[in-house]
Amino acid sequence: MMKRLLTFIGACAALLFTLLGCKEDNKLMFDDSDPKVYIDKRYAGTRVDSVNYSFAFQSKDILTDTVQIPLRIIGLPRNIDRPVAIALTAGSTAKEGYHFKLEHAVIPANASDGLVDVIFFRRAGLKDSVVTAELKVIANADFKPGYNDKAVSAVLDRLTWRFTLTDKLEKPSIWDSYWKNLFGDYSNTKILFLTQLLDYTNWNQGGLFPQDSNRMLAQARLGIYEYEKANGPMFDENGNRVIIP
């Protein structure tokens, strides 16, 4: 009899905890009165919080290019598109509508993530200048700003994204943290050589599959070997020999 009583009490306790847990889960799931949005910087290697972009790596007929800012919400998806407000901060020298524009700054219906297109324009003045911009997530009718801390390996907080734009050769923002492991120290001469040899221009984006990065490295090593066999050592703009380790 005692054993049956204890079993009954245990079952009742388990049911009570289950009901309480469901109540708490429902509260977490449906309490969406204060939705927020922030820039998704979970993947430091592939989703950096700034870009140094140069049209110098592109052929002359390329007049626009696009990079993306990943967004993520705090709250539940909804069945409508929700705009996200992103403002150009004071001190920026890039002009919105002339040097760049933002498109698709929304969290799509039934989604928790979005991608804002930052479209760059190739302007004549960028041949001998660099413009900069700092973009900030701000409040609107649909979202308040979300996390304002720094993600792992990020320089900026999770509401801020920066870029530089030019038509001159500029060191990619992720060279030291990503490409240096493959191709060694940066130089303008080296990156132009690699751009032409590999037919690759997306130097501000990492996250390649190992087989792709290994193929690029093998191709680069063979390319510098063939160059030196035909021309002797290649020297960069600083007088240093160009080496692919």
How is this structure best described in words?
With 245 residues, the protein is an alpha+beta fold. It contains 4 helices and 11 strands; from the N terminus they run αβββββββββββααα. It has a 5-stranded mixed β-sheet with strand order 6-8-3-1-10, with no helix packed on it. Strands 2-11-9-5 form a 4-stranded mixed β-sheet, with no helix packed on it. The longest helix is centred in the N-terminal third of the chain and has 29 residues, at 2-30. The chain is elongated and about 65 Å long. The relative contact order is 0.15.
From the spread of the alpha carbons, the general shape counts as elongated
Q: Give the percentage of residues in beta strands.
A: 15-25%
Biggest sheet strand order reads 6-8-3-1-10
Report the span from N to C terminus. Answer: 79 Å
Radius of gyration, in Å, reads: 25 Å
H/I helix tally:
4
Structural class: alpha+beta
Q: Write the H/E string, N to C.
A: HEEEEEEEEEEEHHH
Low-confidence stretches: 5-31
Percentage of residues in helical conformation: 25-40%
Task: Give the mean pLDDT.
Answer: 85
What's the story with the biggest beta sheet? 5 strands, mixed
Q: How many β strands by DSSP?
A: 11
Q: In a few lines, what is going on in this structure?
A:
Helices cover 29% and strands 24% of the residues.
